[in-house]
């Protein structure tokens, strides 16, 4: 998913990551056993939980997740044999609250781009999370797109990633993933690559206290993801690949990692609390 609001928050976060907004991070990492010739070396998913309070800046209180998925092979000759497909379920909705009664007067869904169309941002069942027709995540989708250049918009870091689970290492890596000064696109790589990454920045949740003369608005994200590594031969250029619960030898993924962006708004503190439960409105 690509949202302007989310990108704005990220740019602010990279300039001011601190204990007031950087809540947590998690590295899920799988290392493959080496085989003869070129083979998979690692697949990892790192997620970041960011929070911005009303006092922090002029933007409203927000809470959002960010994700980066790294694929690495033992050498550059086979990196193109693998790709990432992401699945999503849940929704993002906006609740309009009357300042006079503190009661919801309207609830409506945000919209998003999905598989070449603009749709309501509500997926009660798992769907492939791709803005264009190609299910490959972050695929090249200009008019000259084809099976050979579909990975051109995947990225590589200019400074090596640490890929360690400790707090300090994860904070260092976040700027490599999300600050454009520190990465470039596969199509611009001067030499063949053995490590690439994709990233996701869901829209997140926000409190807008003065959305109208007599109301405030609360956008709530309740999303679950499965970020999966596939053999590229099993990712069609259009249509869907085999689901994330299908075995690898039947066209399913090699490895998946689950993550989420789910919150509940706390009226007393006017902040967003993390929750493990899916919002019933999204089902």
In short:
With 283 residues, the protein is mainly beta. It has helices at residues 4-15, 167-178; strands spanning 22-31, 40-52, 62-73, 82-98, 104-109, 111-114, 117-120, 122-128, 155-157, 183-185, 195-200, 205-208, 215-231, 255-266, 271-274.
Describe this structure in words.
With 283 residues, this protein is mainly beta. It has one domain (4-282). Helices cover 8% and strands 43% of the residues. The protein contains two helices and 15 strands. It has helices spanning 4-15, 167-178, and strands at 22-31, 40-52, 62-73, 82-98, 104-109, 111-114, 117-120, 122-128, 155-157, 183-185, 195-200, 205-208, 215-231, 255-266, 271-274. Strands 1, 2, 3, 4, 5, 8, 11, 12, 13, 14 and 15 form an eleven-stranded antiparallel sheet that branches. It has a two-stranded antiparallel ribbon with strand order 6-7. Strands 9-10 form a two-stranded antiparallel ribbon. The longest helix is centred in the first third of the chain and has 12 residues, at 4-15. The radius of gyration is 19 Å and the shape is globular. Mean pLDDT is 90; it is low at 1-20.
